[in-house]
Amino acid sequence: MGYSREIYRAVEQQLTERRRKAETEAQEHRAAFYRRCPPAEQIEKQLAATAISAARAVLSGKDAREQLTRLKQNNQMLQNRLAELLKSQGYPEDYLEPHYACPDCKDTGYQDGILCSCMKKLLREESYRRLNALTPLSLSTFESFSLDYYSDRPEEEGKKSPRAIMENIYTQCRRYAASFSPSSPNLILQGGTGLGKTHMSLAIANLVIQKGYGVVYCSVNNIINQLEREHFGRDDGDSSRTLQECDLLILDDLGTEFRSAFSCAEIYNLVNTRLMTQKPTIISTNLTMQELQERYTERFASRIMGNYARFSFCGRDNRLQKLLKNSKSV
To answer: Which residues touch 297 (CB under 8 Å, ≥6 apart)?
Structure first.
């Protein structure tokens, strides 16, 4: 299915723990109910004996149909009596049954030898979690994004101030995250170092994840290294599939990765595939459109210009301003 052995093992362990928890709770319910209502234990023993008798009838082959009909009727009678006892004690009919997280596969992960939808979902989530493991998602939100670091004075006469420009970008990005859907548009956040591109894209990721969508956030440098390890057999798995299929992919710091024929081809393939399948992507980069064209290809830059909404960040390096502010306060 394109996931590494480690991801499969992690998900299978989750399912095993879910199954064990459901079955342990059922055993505890059964023991408590037997103490409260002893006749129920005798009924369950009779039900177990009925199942054994049914198996023997099938194996014997002698008048099996008649025996099975009689056993089925007896079984139904016993189940009705057990249900009445449960009801009389104020319990639901399924109180003694394991309550699996997934009733379809009973937390095994498979239905008739085929991956259950619950396991597919867990595989995606575990894959996202691992790709996002080194990302400080919790540190960047819209609430923590401050416009105070952007000047309210226009840099050119007749132009908007950096703060006004960034306030508009902030509003549009927050609206994008709040209304996100798998058909949302692509974004490219451009501008110099320290202007808030990473913070803004992380804030979008945070809100989209809270809405229940699968988000992969990664620096381009890290993901190229991962894809290279997988491509040349130094690591198993198929990160490219996860990157192509997630609900939202955020590629941070495009242009900082080591440039090679492999990296350029992988980046183009990833961006192009998501465009073809109409899955939204957000790119942050310090490069201008001209620099993107020079570093990659004219075709790549054309795909970005024609299919991405562009946000040009402006102002002075926020990180530098914070350092200067902190040094003054010491």
So the answer is: 264, 268
Give me the torsion for CA of 317, 319, 325, 327, rounded to 10°.
Answer: -120
Spatial contact of 315 and 282, defined as CB atoms under 8 Å apart: no
Domains, the chain, ranges and CATH?
5-118 (no CATH), 132-329 (3.40.50.300)
Q: Find tokens 């085929």 and name the residue.
A: 114
Task: Report d(CA 271, CA 284) in Å as an integer.
Answer: 13
Cα-only R_g, the chain: 29
Helix, strand, or coil (residue 115) = strand
Q: pLDDT per position in the chain (330 positions), as tens? A: 356 677 788 999 999 999 999 999 999 988 888 888 888 778 777 777 776 766 666 666 666 666 667 767 776 777 778 788 888 888 888 888 899 999 999 999 999 889 999 998 898 888 777 766 766 666 688 999 999 989 999 888 888 999 999 999 999 999 999 999 999 999 999 999 889 999 999 999 888 888 878 888 888 998 898 888 887 766 666 678 888 888 999 999 999 998 999 999 999 999 999 999 999 999 999 999 999 999 999 999 999 999 999 999 998 876 666 555 555 554
